[in-house]
Amino acid sequence: MTTLDGINRRILRVLQGEGRISNLDLAEKVGLSPSACLRRVQDLERRGVILGYRARVDPGAVDRGYLVYVTVALAEHTKAAQEGFEKAMATAPEVTECHNIAGAFEYLLRVEVADLPSYKAFHTDTLGTVPHVRAITSHMVMGTSKDTRG
Is 40 helix (H, G, I), strand (E, B) or coil? Predict the structure, then answer.
């Protein structure tokens, strides 16, 4: 596990909120010279602490404004069943996150589609055709009061 000092933690906090901040502004916010700040950011990238940078897009503008969290239970608890499910979800463009979880269900999915009919099609034509799926529970998001994902 990578140990991070207070300055590196401040750098990460700022970058998570402002990924396009200039090195000069970042250095000022964390109290470093620009060259020292750049060296630290490059080191965090090289060590794999910073995995990349991405644009945050308005889901409604790209026909993905209908968000559903889906729990999925499998009928079989075998490695082959899990690998098959994960492979199917990896190829489903509607699924933006797929987590193997502990508890009553094996998987938690984040599904982004245009609207309810699009979700119904995904539910029926994609999830409903994956072998070993025993139960599907859909949680439609009605509003989001906090989202700190980058």
Answer: helix
pLDDT band at 1 (very low <50, low <70, confident <90, very high): low
Backbone angles phi, psi at 4, to 5 degrees: -115, 135
Say which DSSP state 66 is in: E
pLDDT of residue 135: 97
Rounded to whole angstroms, the Cα distance separating 4 from 68 reads 35
Structural domains present in the chain: 6-46 (1.10.10.10), 59-140 (3.30.70.920)
The C-alpha torsion from 71 through 76 and 79 to 85, rounded to 10°, is -40
* Cβ-proximal residues to 96 (8 Å cutoff; 6+ apart), any chain: 110, 111, 112
The angle subtended at Cα 127 by Cα 124 and Cα 131, nearest 5°, is 115
